[in-house]
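ugh ok fine here u go
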Amino acid sequence: MSITDFFGQQIRLAQSDTGHRAGTDAILLASLVEASEAGLVVDAGAASGAAGLCVARRFPFAHVKLIEIDRGQIALARQNIAMNDFSDRVEALHGDLLGSYEERKKQGLVQEDADCVITNPPYLDAAAHRASPDQDKSRAHMMPQEGLTFWLKSCMTMLKPKGRLHMIHRADQLSEILSALPKNLGAIQIIPIHPREDQPATRLLLSATKNSHAPLTLATGFILHEANGQFTTKAKALHEGQCGFNDL
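structure:
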């Protein structure tokens, strides 16, 4: 385990030295949240809590629930909550987004009370990668066939009507993402994320509203790096926690 500064040194983050480590994906995801959505925010599949903690830092009035299945990551998330003095408004809970409705109900994941759900679902295809022998770790990093559909439905059971969903995912999974979206999501906006201006998008940011019928919009692509490898001015502002996407 190591402890590093994150989000323009506004967050101290304990992370495992092996496996998943938070970076740009978490910051982009947290930067989608707007003040009007930051009452109760759920970070679904939170790992050590980076994205949710960034939301808590951006909005001092926000209450955040970090939902994670890997108990090792939950322990790190709880350490991060305490280390950043968020214990009064951030909590880390064990939960399985791919569990049955009854299992999720027991875990407190079906209240439909969240103003906003942010999520960075597992990217790895369970059929193409060797799973960890630890069941929780395996389910934290592997997405079974049709798993994204169920994952997003689980997110819907946590969102209140007209609540907002924000997700980051791989750009090459766009077709699967659109197929997996629940029918009661509208006002969908997709932002392609490009490593450089001359390179194809590698990530997608998706935002949507529960129980909306507004049409889908495709936003202008967001560029992370200049030709010299440095962050663009806008990307640097997000990474340092100076603003969110709606402020750019």
